[in-house]
Amino acid sequence: MGYVSAVPPPRSDASAEPEPEAADSRSSRRSVAAALLLGALGATVVLLASGRVWARGTAAIGSDSLQLSADGRAVTGLPAALAIVGLAALVAVFAVRGKSRLLVSGLLALSGLGAALSALLGSDGRTALDAQAVRTTADSAAHVAGLTQTTWPYVTAAGAVLILAAGLLALRFGGGWPSMGGRYERDGSPRPRAVAAVDPDRPEDLWKALDRGEDPTTDPGGDRTR
User: Fold this and answer.
1) From CA 118, how far away is CA 79, in angstroms rounded?
2) Is the pTM for the entire model greater than 0.85?
């Protein structure tokens, strides 16, 4: 007569659910990678698109007309300046922790929002072209005619939205991101520093230990050399 075991068979590794810590670690790495990619790409787009022609027009000089154009930095310098601020904030996010990281993440998001709004609100370019017409014609009453706009202001705004998205990711997931300080654990306590072995027969080892502030007459285990 056969016996039936009451012990259930062990679960295979394939059916085992991933540990919560491993899942959180993967999610943290994905959010870090996404924020870095979005922030760097967005700042690059804003800086490049700000240097392109945003508006064109003509200014009358006697019976002739002069073609004028203005790039993004001439129209408004805010998007490029805020993109640089966003890049600095993106790096600083990994250099701070706690409330400071929250504040820097907010600065990153606000720089993207401000760059997008300034690009859209300043896309007209008429003021910059009027000023250029006055300088070119030496006529204080000169103004630009036949104003046309390009798509570069909207490309700049799109890049700024990517910076904003990076800031929102930092605000949402930044609390679990690693920091640049490799000597510190998650709880902020310093990691123990490995003590190099000192050979009492080698004078150079003794001098190096003294430079590190260590007692060369004591080994790492605490026993004194003879």
Assistant:
1) 6
2) no
Amino acid at 159: G
Strands 145-149 vs 64-71: parallel, antiparallel or unpaired: unpaired
Q: How far is Cα 82 from Cα 157, in angstroms, rounded to an integer?
A: 12
Side-chain half-sphere exposure of 191, counting CA atoms within 13 A: 9
How many residues comprise the chain? 226
Closest CA to 53 of 139, 153, 120: 153
Domains of the chain in start order, with CATH, are 26-179 (1.20.140), 196-226 (no CATH)
Nearest to 47 by CA among 131, 122, 156: 156
Indicate the burial class of 44 (C-beta count within 10 angstroms; 0-12, 13-18, 19 or more): middle
Q: What is the pLDDT of residues 180-191, one digit of tens each?
A: 654 444 444 555
